[in-house]
Each structure stands twice: as structure tokens, then as C-alpha cells.
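Lecture 7 notes. Example A: sequence first, then its C-alpha cells.
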Amino acid sequence: MTESDTRRALLHIEAADADAEELDRLARRLRAELGELGVDLRAVPGEVPPGAKAADPVTIGSLMVAFSAAGGVFPSLVETLREWLGRQAGRNRIKITIDGDTVELERATTAQRQQLIDAFVSRHG
């Protein structure tokens, strides 16, 4: 990827009633799935949640994803996030921020999610 061809998205997982260990586990599972898309993933340093044992930035549940603006990677990224959320048992949410524009994905009806995703992808895809 060239610098002019690269887009960056900040992903932040929010899990209701999850402790630092659970949030860490969720972030690692998501990171493993996103790694299969051929995107560049980096942990984002930030505040460590109360009760965390170490300053592992993945524990906070934030990842920076760099991907090619060409080739349809962004729609695949969003679809992977949507599917991942659908497989989670808890009340989880993922915030995606690109250029200051944020969308929150969470459990919703399929039609609601698709409408929200289509609008976001059309702005950034």
C-alpha cells in the first residue's frame, strides 16, 4: 500500500459488563479475524481500564486498521465486524472512526445494521 492509497480506521470495542480480561479476550479474537483480511493492524495506546494487570494497549479494546482505499477492502472490513458482533453472546459494540466520522455497530435487526453500514461505507468506501 502506498501512503496516498492508504485509509485508516480506528476501531474501539465496548463490552457491557466486561472486565479488563474479557475485553482483552474480545479484542484479541477480533484482531485475529481482521488479520485474515490483509489489513495492517496496530494496537492503540491509551488509558488502561480499572482492574487491568498491565499496560497492554490491546486491553483497552482499540485497534488502528490501515487498508488500501482500492479493491473493496473497507466493505469487507465492515462486514467482518458485523459478523463478529453477531456471534458474540454479550452486549458488545464496535465504534469505527474514519476522518472524525464515527459509526457504532451493535446488535440490531439485520435491516437496521445494513442501512447503517451502507451509509457509512458509501461515505468512506
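Example B, a different protein, same format:
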Amino acid sequence: MPDNHTGYRISVVDQDPLRARKETRELLNALAEVDSTARLDLPEAGSLAGVGDKGGPSAETVGLLLNAGSFVAALVQVWLARVPQRTIVVKRPDGATLHVTGREAREDDTLIERFLADDDGDGTKAG
């Protein structure tokens, strides 16, 4: 999977790639109004990224690329909190990643926003 985008990447983790795509499209629809640059991030044809990792293929298969802002982060947090069994991976341009579940999103309603705001380039504050 090419990793040369300039924005943030959010991946929906699911062992069912079709469900992951459906949920990613739902999240994209929710974000489209506040971030017109948000788009689906699908693998290149023939890519084997994540193959063999439990849950890996879907985490690497479907995601969103976006320009994050506090309102975008809040929308992602709200969307994730509605689905407590869902896990997403948020990746900053500096390579730092945050794995967060819907349950964690409910417990800490600013977790994603703080992670995105903490983009200082050294990747040391990732969760």
C-alpha cells in the first residue's frame, strides 16, 4: 500500500472486507460535508498488504484519506462511539498511529482529536 499521501489516514478494522468497505463509505459520507478532500483509500490491484495478519487485510484494504481538523476528528469520534465493537486505526502524516475502539471512543470523547492535534512530527506520542 503506498504511504505517500499528505493527509491523515483512517482505516476500519474488520475481518469482513465488505463490511469494512460499507462502514468506511458511511464514515466518508459523514465527513464529506466538512472535508471535501476526504476520499476512499483502496489498495492497488494485486496488493498483498496485510495478508496473513489477523484482521490485517481489511485494515490495509480500506481506509480514508483526509485533512484532519477538530470538527473532522469530532465526527470520527461520534461515528466510532456508535459502534462499540468497531476498531479503527488513525495514522498521522508523521507515521504515528492510534488504534481505538468504539468503547474507548465513548470513554474518552477527545482521544482522536488530541492525537491528531499532537502531530509534532516525532511520532513519540502515539497510542
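Note on Example B: The CA atoms of residues 49 and 60 lie 6 Å apart. The longest strand covers residues 8-13.
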